[in-house]
Amino acid sequence: MQPVPEYPTNVQSTNPYNGQDRGLFLLHDPAPRYARIHAARWTLNGPASALGRLEYQVMAYAQAPVSAQDYLNGTLLTAPDGTQWFDCLTRGMVTKPILVEYWGKDSLRKCYLNAEEPAKLTDEELQRVLTQAQSFVTVMGQWAKLQSVELKAVYGVSLGQPLARTSLSLTVVYGEGAGTTVTLTNFTEDPADAVRAALTYIRSQQGA
Asked: If phi over 0 gives left and psi between -120 and 50 gives alpha, with beta otherwise, what is residue 117?
């Protein structure tokens, strides 16, 4: 079972550094080698105070990468379930790549490399997170008959670039019965809270 995450205290989401070496860190497992988050997808089904789930891939390098091509020519690490996707729980909004790098590196060390029994999140853990998030949605969105929200961000790397977000979407289900489902993808700025963003959209439709 993975530990409940704490809010990061040593990372700034507004850090402007965007060099190709951003996110590079050193592994000791047991031979020293370098690694970087190569791809990720993050999902949140409640407000910013709810727990989210980050799935991520880690690219490892025998030597410190220097050229842009070096960063793409590493080896993806294998997760305990045999896939190349690790996962962990997160706190707060993880809509910035630098936060993905923080959570990925932190959980890789704590939950996989240095854990007695490395394991991905279980179905029970994931269901507990979803149930908790849904309880927030039900209370906060009662007036709008808000049924569910899913904020999803996808990340990847390209030649000469560090991890970057490739998409951000908010899927909202509201109304009576099966409800109305809408997926929002155009944001003037990143949502500070998925539920509040959903309620703002519903209010705008009611006033239309």
From this structure: beta
Residues 27, 81: Cα–Cα separation, whole Å: 20
d(CA 193, CA 76): 32
Q: Reply yes or no on whether the pLDDT at 2 is more than 90.
A: no
Alpha-carbon distances of 193 from 85, 123, 143, 188, rounded to whole Å: 26, 25, 17, 14
How far the first Cα of the chain sits from its last, in Å, is 47
Counted residue by residue, the chain has a size of 208
Residues above pLDDT 90, as percent of the chain: 87
Cα–Cα distance for residue pair 86/84, rounded to 1 Å? 7
Owner of token pair 């990720």: 40
Q: How far apart are CA 2 and CA 128, in angstroms?
A: 13
| pLDDT single digits (tens) 129-148 | 999 999 999 999 999 999 99
Nearest to 195 by CA among 173, 175, 177, 179: 173
| Residue with the two structure tokens 């091509």 | 69
In angstroms and rounded to an integer, the radius of gyration of the C-alpha atoms of the chain is: 18
| Angstrom distance (rounded) from CA 45 to CA 136 | 9
Q: Are 183 and 196 in contact (CB under 8 A)?
A: no
CA angle 81, 85, 88 (to 5 degrees): 95
Reduced to 3 states, what is the DSSP secondary structure of residue 189? Answer: coil
- Indicate if the pLDDT at residue 4 is higher than 60: yes
